[in-house]
Amino acid sequence: MRQSLARRLLLALVALSVSGAAAPPAQAAPAKAKVDFYVKNYTLAPGSSLELRTLLFADRPLPVRRGDVNLVYRFAGQGPGLHLQEAGHPNNCSVRQPDLLELTCSAEVGALTPEGVESNVVGWVVAGDDAVVGRTGTLTATMTVKGFAPVTRTATIRIGERVGLTAADSAKDTSAPPGGSVDVPLTITNTGSVPIRGTAFGSYTQYAFESRTQFSNCYYLGGELRYCLFDQTLAPGAAYRVTLPLRMRKDTYAPSRQNGSWQWMTKDEFADLRQYVQRGGFEPLGTPGRGGVLRLTPLATAKADPPQALEEYVSDGLAVTVTGKHSTDLAAVGARATGQKGAIVRVKVGIRNDGPATIDRQRVNAPWPKARVFIPKGTTATKVPDICFPMTDRGVVDYGHGGRPGELRYSCYLDSMFKVGFTDPLNFSLRIDQVITGAAGSVKVDAPAEELNKANNSAYIVINGAAPPAAPPVAPPAGGGEGGGGGLPITGPAGGLAGLLLVLGGVAALLIGRRRRA
């Protein structure tokens, strides 16, 4: 599930007064948005293909409708071996027959943003069996956004020498307490007939995995290992091992299951990935460590170069069972607002993690707390976060209408990463239809049973009141509750929630890392 990136742009209408006075000077119209895009570079082995990845940008949030954004990819004068392909019908791309050198696609997006959005085109760049190793081609792409001039960009396509790399799956599932060490052995073998001149891997672990040592040929972000690059040549038939010194962070939730995986690639494929991450608005590669060099250790004797590419993805994985009991305290965060009849007030509510454990559901389907929001009596919700869904008085949630205004009760999701001390904003706009002194709604934590402190799991949303009611009613049960007036004690400053669970959709999604949050 992905949150919608579309935001409505506000348009201001300027009225000129002509009643007995000179008209004020005309104001300049706001500058038109600027649009741009970026197409990933590729290194392919002959006989292989890779999905086109294209990021679309605008210098401000720019909502678009279906069919407003189109992309045309072209190969021209490239010689044999390179062509384009679609996935079959129905899809959002169509390849030109019979030469397969032009692919026309409609981008499946709701908005262009400064952070960049993936175009979601279903098309591939293909290197045929007749592709010449060492040849470099240019893929030309043109983006047309309705109402804007076309933009043309290019991507470099390299034909790499076919190599083979196999992971031995030597990283076995294990267990450790919070703060405990975990050594992860990774073993790879060059199963091809030619040397592999340099490899790299991307590390895709949950937040709980922290590096004990930071090596100079690896990249780290917040103590988390992201990538390692090895300049060693792997001989045909030889096996190599590297051991990653990790540990479970001290704030890891326990008991829990934490997952990690490591995706191998050639140094040339890593160069393509590095450029895509740097130009695509993703979280940065990280910072090189200051320790020694992490090396691949040979386990067997081996029986101006072109670039190389793997025939298929090569990866390793590990699951760590975190032992003991190490839970956390989730506190509801309420809000207060004042206004006259007809006014629209904004309230920021949510759930705060008071520790000591971080909650991480990025790659596991674990029990997950939610926020239940009850709108104060005398008000109407006019703007609702799209991660909040209408809920009946019996606790039945309508997941098909996220963000729908006008309801009395909502069930809202937390972010997939909930660190200690963190509160994610959950913003509601309420119209005051009737001025009621001390009108109270509520926020309630729908928490797992092992949550540490139930006393602060509810909080007031108070409209036009100096203090909450003296005797708050009992908090609504998990299966339902009173809406529009159930008052609960405020436990802290205003805060909120943001983000639905992001389900990892395959290896391609893992390769580009996490997007920066706007």
**Structure classification:** mainly beta
Strand proportion:
35-45%
What's the overall geometry?
Answer: flat
Mean pLDDT: 82
Count of DSSP H/I helices: 2
Q: Would you count the extended β strands for me?
A: 40
Largest sheet: 7 strands, mixed
Radius of gyration: 27 Å
Work out the oligomeric state of the chains in this entry.
single chain
Instruction: Catalogue the unreliable spans.
Output: 1-26, 468-518
Strand line-up in the sheet with most strands = 17-28-24-19-22-21-25
State the helical fraction: under 10%
Taking the alpha carbons of the first and last residues, their distance comes to 17 Å
Could you please describe the fold and organization of this structure?
- This protein has 518 residues and is mainly β.
- Helix content is 3%, strand content 43%.
- The chain contains two helices and 40 strands.
- The chain has a seven-stranded mixed β-sheet. The chain has a six-stranded mixed β-sheet with strand order 2-14-13-6-9-8. A six-stranded mixed β-sheet has the order 30-40-39-33-36-35, with no helix packed on it.
- The chain is flat and about 80 Å long.
- The two termini are 17 Å apart.
Question: How is the secondary structure organized here?
Answer:
Layout: E1 35-39, E2 42-44, E3 48-51, E4 54-58, E5 62-63, E6 69-74, E7 82-86, E8 93-95, E9 102-106, E10 111-112, E11 117-118, E12 123-127, E13 136-145, E14 151-159, E15 161-163, E16 165-167, E17 174-176, E18 181-190, E19 196-205, E20 209-211, E21 218-221, E22 224-234, E23 239-248, E24 254-266, H1 267-279, E25 287-288, E26 297-298, E27 308-310, E28 314-326, E29 328-333, E30 335-337, E31 344-356, E32 359-360, E33 370-374, E34 379-383, E35 388-390, E36 409-413, E37 417-418, E38 426-432, E39 439-446, E40 458-463, H2 507-511
Parallel strand pairs: 2-14, 15-27, 17-28, 30-40
Antiparallel strand pairs: 1-4, 3-12, 4-11, 5-10, 6-9, 6-13, 7-12, 8-9, 13-14, 16-18, 18-23, 19-22, 19-24, 20-23, 21-22, 21-25, 23-26, 24-28, 29-31, 31-38, 32-37, 33-36, 33-39, 34-38, 35-36, 39-40
